Amino acid sequence: MGPARKTAVDYDLIRRNIIPLSLNNPKKDYDTLLESIGSARAVLIGEATHGTKEFYHERILITQRLIKEKGFTVVACEADWPDAYKVNRYVQNYKTNESRNAKEALSDFKRFPKWMWANQEVVNFVEWLRNYNDQIEAKAKSQSQSEKTKPFSEKVGFYGLDIYSLFGSINNIIQYLDKIDPKAAKQARLKSTENYTLATYFQISDTCEDEVIQVLKSIMKKTTEYPQDNRDSEEVDGLFNAEMNALVVKDAEDYYRHAMAVGPESWNRRDTHMMNALERLIKRLEGRRGGKEFKSVIWAHNRYSSEGDLYAAIKPKERLVGDAVKSILDNFHAKDLDMDVPTTLDLLPILAQASVTAASHWDGEREVKRVNPSLPQSVENAFHTVAVKSNEPNFLLLFTRISSETSVKTPTSTDLINELADSSYLLQRAIGVIYAPDTEYLSHYFRAKTSKQFDAVIHIDTTSEVKPLEEDESLELS
């Protein structure tokens, strides 16, 4: 006979390893976390829902500390490229910026689900980024002439990695071509009618992949024509923006043609695009710094931010961002192969008393929903029990740490990791922009090895819904 199946959680073991969080003292709360990140060049901060206010708030506090204390200069999000790039123009104060404040900078986030980015928590962060970058620019102006070229590459950028902005990216490309090649812009308009896109979706028309690839090649060639000492200019960034929009169009068209496919195909196409976008972003930014490494924070749902080879879900063929980030960094810096282990930080909710902003179906109305109590066999329920037993409603669990001196990742507690990695009995809940409480077990739970997927988990016992900017009034709880 094999070993007996484990059916109980060792709550005392978990309790002995928690680091209490006050949620009102970010420096004290996250000192241990910042120390554990060590020399990591990428930090992936997840979220177990796309509609929880506290997740946004704590993720922003951690990101601000990474920027100020660890020198991180990129915030890459599960957001559409053109909408996020408008924010990037604002926070870096580009000459092409037309936004007067953060709300205007976020105004292009109009498609479903608006609340993910056009909310007050993100507004506050965007204004903080603008002020932080303005201070960098002001300091540089008082320095020597040779130092005055640095602010553009030292400022913190805000970028989107997602794939859904087909129409927005087409429009951005056409607007850019209007400036540099009106003839090409006219041809692009003929190719981008709504009828064509609908035909593509239902696979009854030839695709525009060849044309978009030609646009990509043309833009990349034009980039190389700029003098080396001018690679830091906004003109080159304009080219790069057009290149990224062309990549979105090519990949989005492919994604939508496979959107109705059964299995992991559409998931993997979206995930692959996000990693291609990140890889191009890394290449661009490191080229701008003369090959000097930079550090990035990546915001994505837990289903993306974990490490795929340890993702014991019922969909084993799905690719995940956590693994791909390490692969990208290794490709850029092969000499550091053993050191390029990005720290992934997962914000995991325990929904004992929780409401969440979500819809009942894609493109549906925003609702404020009461989240069901977590299942007894879930990691959320285990953490909630620990919170009650310890009288610590909010806490941090660290599973690994990275040395600042050697860049080696080591486990904090083998017993704790093994306890939470037993996928035979622990479930994990994931809520995206859609929440279906009536079919929650099938729709939102999966078996997982939490302590091996993530390097750290933050538990917040009571959470509330995030609210979009244009809808500050309360909705009735459903």
Radius of gyration: 23 Å
Structural class: alpha/beta
Q: What is the mean predicted local confidence, pLDDT? A: 76
Q: What is the global morphology?
A: globular
- Overall helicity: 40-55%
Largest sheet: 9 strands, mixed
Low-confidence runs of at least 5 consecutive residues: 193-206, 308-320, 328-342
Instruction: Report the strand count.
Output: 13
Q: CA-to-CA gap between the ends?
A: 48 Å
Taken as a percent bin, the fraction of beta residues is 5-15%
Total DSSP helices: 19
Notes on the protein architecture:
By secondary structure, the protein is of the alpha/beta class. The protein contains 19 helices and 13 strands. Strands 1, 2, 3, 4, 5, 6, 7, 8 and 13 form a 9-stranded mixed sheet that branches. Strands 9-10 form a two-stranded antiparallel sheet. It has a two-stranded antiparallel ribbon with strand order 11-12. Helix 12 runs antiparallel to helix 13. The longest helix is centred in the middle third of the chain and has 24 residues, at 234-257. The termini are far apart.
